[in-house]
TrEMBL record:
Principal place of residence: membrane
Catalytic activity, EC: 2.7.13.3
Transmembrane segments: 225-246
Organism: Chromobacterium sphagni
Signal sequence interval, chain numbering: 1-18
Record-linked InterPro entries: 2C_sensor_his_kinase, HATPase_C_sf, HATPase_dom, His_kinase_dom, HisK_dim/P_dom, HisK_dim/P_sf, VxrA_SD
Enzyme class at the top of the EC tree: transferase
Protein name: histidine kinase
Catalytic reactions on record: ATP + protein L-histidine = ADP + protein N-phospho-L-histidine
């Protein structure tokens, strides 16, 4: 009964003139500030579109190896660090001032330090700018494609995932058939008002009567007398329908959800600011002092972890979120980078190339290692075993628990503790991936089990 009555009130409050179709028709007739063909974007490699391609590849190379590469870039002298052959060829060409053929960049897109190989090459060879444009990241040519490269990380990721409406910096982006069109605030706001709509960015967890991708379309408020009448009627109806017991049952759930939504929302601005700082340091890396170069890797790693935390919280709140598709992953190299970040050791019976969801599996393993380091006792170890098309990752430490039942542990910790929230995120992500989280011991051992395929099979 309360839900039916609430729907009735919402239907009464919607003005008849609110019309998204009318807004679309008006936008088609208006002349956009800029537009670009969707096919032109689809021709680019996905690596040249993703925001994370601009950050150091800490998930593929150990931090110490990237730091050695930073130092060698500035010194250009023997001995060279142990690097992949093609990367070593590129760095030697930069130090020696040698030219590389354009076709080389077609098969070498993203540099381990972040950004495209073409961008790094143009810092020494600006005369090649006209021929290397197709191999630059979208952010490295912000004037191209109607300025899509200037979109924020969240909006750019939403565009790549198929969203059709975006609001960024006051500009409205709309995909109309085969074109992305950009409209300034002075263009789209009068058209939206004429259609009876108010457009605003849609944050995760926000209630919206008519979501348009990352944009919320709300009807304009009705006339004052009607609004006052409806508000008074709503208050009287709510006082009679909403019971005390129902409020009590829902209160705790709302409070927990609000706290997580607030944390996710408030983290976005500082994370974006730190991302911009990292980008500025990367662009002027050759001019940084030696001490600043050594600290740059730690700064980039911290920004990456903050971004993972915000993404994990957003995923934890979204019931319909979609996880990334598995990708080929050399298991030993990936475990090297994870173990180095946490100061742990690992044991691997046999190295394999597996199809794994690298980002979400890495987030789960990071949470377990962080919990073991903060709440357990050394030594912290990771054991990786692949059998019968299932990967088993076991994180153990020297501590002990009163009971080794995961359900009891979650009930004792709840979501109020850092470890409780981390385990809740890991459990939910593993369930989405088709795997599971288990607890064994003593010694205290958290186990991730996930079905996956060996590329060799």
């Amino acid at each position: 009964m309360p839900r039916l009555f609430a729907l009735f009130l919402i239907a009464l409050s919607l003005p008849a003139r609110a019309d998204v179709a009318a807004l679309q028709a008006s936008l088609r007739e208006a002349h956009p500030q800029a537009e670009t063909a969707v096919a032109a974007l689809q021709q680019l490699d996905a690596a040249l579109l993703r925001p994370d391609s601009l950050y150091p590849a800490l998930d593929q190379f150990p931090l110490s190896e990237l730091q050695a590469l930073y130092r060698q870039r500035g010194q250009c002298r023997q001995p060279w660090p142990a690097l992949p052959a093609e990367l070593l060829r590129f760095e030697r060409a930069l130090c020696g001032g040698q030219a590389l053929p354009t076709r080389w960049f077609a098969s070498h897109l993203i540099h381990p330090l972040g950004g495209s190989y073409a961008w790094h090459y143009l810092q020494r060879h600006p005369e090649a700018a006209s021929t290397l444009q197709p191999y630059l990241h979208l952010r490295e040519r912000p004037a191209a494609f109607a300025g899509i490269g200037r979109l924020g990380d969240d909006n750019l990721a939403a565009l790549l995932s198929g969203e059709r409406w975006l609001l960024d910096g006051g500009a409205l982006w709309w995909r109309d058939g085969a074109f992305w069109r950009r409209y300034g605030a002075g263009q789209w706001r009068p058209l939206a008002e004429a259609a009876g709509l108010e457009l605003s960015p849609l944050a995760d967890g926000d209630a919206c009567p008519q979501p348009l991708g990352r944009v919320c379309a709300r009807p304009l408020p009705p006339s004052p007398w009607w609004w006052r009448t409806l508000a008074g009627f709503s208050l009287l109806a709510a006082a009679g329908v909403l019971a005390y017991g129902w409020r009590q049952r829902r209160r705790l759930e709302r409070e927990r959800r609000f706290v997580l939504q607030m944390l996710t929302h408030e983290l976005r601005t500082p994370i974006a600011g730190l991302g911009n700082v990292v980008e500025e340091f990367r662009a002027g890396f050759d001019r940084l002092p030696e001490d600043a170069r050594q600290g740059f890797g730690r700064l980039a790693d911290g920004v990456l972890r903050l971004r993972q935390l915000a993404d994990a919280s957003r995923h934890f709140l979204a019931a319909d979120s979609r996880l990334e598709a598995p990708q080929p992953l050399p298991l030993a190299e990936w475990l090297d980078s994870v173990a180095e970040r946490h100061g742990a050791t690992y044991c691997l019976d046999q190295d394999r190339n597996l199809n794994l969801p690298a980002y979400w599996l890495g987030l789960c393993l990071d949470n377990l290692l962080r919990n073991a380091r903060q709440h357990g006792r050394p030594p912290v170890r990771v054991t990786a075993v692949w059998r019968s098309r299932r990967l088993r990752l076991a994180v153990s430490d020297g501590g002990a628990l009163p009971r080794y039942r995961l359900s009891l542990l979650r009930r004792e910790l709840g979501l109020g503790a850092g470890m409780g929230l981390g385990l809740a995120i890991v459990r939910r992500v593993m369930k989405r991936l088709g795997g599971r989280l288990a607890l064994e011991g003593p010694p205290t051992t958290f186990v991730l089990e996930l079905p996956c395929d060996d590329i060799a099979d």
